[in-house]
């Protein structure tokens, strides 16, 4: 049985504006507690990750300041890892490009002490020289994903996606390869699942945290204030497929609430989630997912 | 490491390094500064509500929201306006024999200044130039080479033509089109080396400003295009017909991949189509496949297969059928379809005597179609 946690709180932020730190901190605290059964960070983090390994937090900053993983959301996650026993230097918050990171409000840090924050296009980083060929995928990995880190957290923002249906934890890894533009046909199916199935991701991924504080439930992945909802939630799971499945249900719920057709009716059901289940990456069957929902 | 890679790439692409004009080719695989991409408004797109756009340049019709790029990776929606990121941003600049394109009936024994930008609108599993075609422009080094500079470079190197090639020129349409106009003013010809996965309107517009086009027909069935090209066959066939009806010189290349597109029956069907739709005089090149990119599991095409397919095409009544990628093969030569004599002798890119005068075979006077001078 896969466990998925949805922790929510009211008024954590107004639209994409400033986030209430205390509330965010409480979401993480409670989320980790519910996920691991341990109240204190030391024990809860240790059940999820090896605290002595270089760990990447893959964020999504393609949406600029309006619709990206906001710095507070990733830095507070990093803070929980540190409280759990990680050293700052072993945590790397990253995405494709420094430009996108900067425009989402991140201050880059490649060489100073502390948590590292940089993009694949930084000097001396780049993409692997060789292609990784696996199932439908033929791509060069960011050397951050393939080389620098040995365990990985996907901290993705939850969005409707015009082609994929939704974008959440698994599709976030499109930002770890050089040619994601080649994988948007057929609602990104089977590409999202096949990419996740590569050793560089499947072998390293430990945790999905979906940032559902502000959810774009229609016309994504671009930001349209008209179709965003202050959902005020985090979705957490060690099962990447179950996490995305629940993220999808949240989008459907919001679409229904706003009188929009389902993704299936719009011919863009995220079938890659089912494909991922077929590859043994996790569960997309509600009967096998235990959802723990909590309002704080 | 990078220099060695470049040389390897050049060899694979058949590029002679000493004629490479890209000044910092050793950095071919490093990042370009993203802010150094172009921001020139794209042509052939439609604005949609909610800052969305639909690109109408190629049959993919990418529909994109703000900040998104198309399948080709070189066009981006910025706030509801669509831009090309590769205008004047050449990632490969070389002086090549025109025969390397291959164009065999177009200004033989001359050179073409050959340019490319990053990107492609399909993803052929057997691509020979994937290091530039299957990347985004910021992932490789490019130089600023606006249309006027391309033309000047061609003049400086005594190239009577400019070839838009290596990756897929359709995706750098605006750059190619404007350069072609500029070249025409200086009496320089333009040739396009393309998979022709393009929509009719832009293609017709392009044919107005260029002089030659070589189209890669990758198979004669949609199944192959779906599985190995990730594109559509019909638009390519339409483009072949459109080009043949225009003033532009057309040649067709068919890369023969063992077991995937090499059955004589498919080739026979294709040759019949070519003869019926275009006529017997369009040069057809059967090219040898070498394992590369995502198709390393197949052997190079047996020479005997190429010879069988060439014979099939000749049997079907095509007059100019060549075998490519096998230097010194006798099917590199042009034979007069009337008297059978060699009228252009080729050994790789070494071109012997050309026995064509005023567009006619010097031995029997047969008219030989082409762009000879
Ligand atoms: S040219 Fe590029 S953006 Fe336009 S439809 Fe084709 S692949 Fe899409």
Short description:
The complex is a heterodimer of chains A (296) and B (373). Chain A has 296 residues and is of the alpha/beta class.
The fourth-level CATH homologous superfamily of chain A is LarA, N-terminal domain
Overall structural class of chain B, as computed from helix and strand content, comes to alpha/beta
Mean pLDDT of chain A: 96
List cofactors, ions and other ligands. Answer: iron/sulfur cluster
Radius of gyration of chain B: 20 Å
How many DSSP-defined strands of chain B? 21
What is the helix content of chain A? Answer: 25-40%
The CATH topology of the largest domain in chain B is what? TIM Barrel
> What is the CATH architecture term of the largest domain in chain B?
Alpha-Beta Barrel
Q: Give the percentage of residues in beta strands of chain A.
A: 15-25%
In DSSP terms, counting alpha (H) and pi (I) runs of 4 or more, how many helices of chain A?
Answer: 9
Task: Give a written overview of the molecule.
The complex is a heterodimer of chains A (296) and B (373). The two termini of chain A are 25 Å apart. Chain A has 9 helices and 11 strands. Chain A has a single domain (2-295), classed as Rossmann fold (3-Layer(aba) Sandwich). Chain A is an alpha/beta fold and 296 residues long. Chain B folds into 2 domains: 13-29 and 87-327, TIM Barrel, CATH 3.20.20.70; 34-84. The N and C termini of chain B lie far apart (43 Å). Helix content of chain B is 25%, strand content 23%. In chain B, a hairpin with a 6-residue loop joins strand 17 and strand 18. In chain B, helix 5 (200-207) packs parallel to helix 7. By secondary structure, chain B is α/β, with parallel strands linked by helices. Chain B has helices at 2-12, 130-133, 147-156, 173-185, 200-207, 222-229, 234-245, 264-277, 303-315, and strands at 40-41, 45-48, 52-55, 63-64, 75-78, 81-84, 89-90, 92-97, 111-116, 143-144, 161-164, 189-194, 212-216, 249-256, 284-288, 321-324, 334-335, 342-347, 350-354, 356-357, 360-361. Chain B has an 8-stranded mixed β-sheet with strand order 8-9-11-12-13-14-15-16. Chain A binds chain B through residues 62-64, 97, 99, 121, 126-127, 129, 131, 133, 138, 162, 178-179, 181-182, 184-185, 219-224, and chain B through 1, 5, 29-31, 34-35, 50-52, 63-73, 123, 125, 134-136, 138-139, 230, 293-294. The complex binds iron/sulfur cluster (SF4). The site of iron/sulfur cluster has 12 residues of chain B, from loops. Residues 55, 57-58, 60-62, 70-72, 75, 121, 171 of chain B line the site of iron/sulfur cluster.
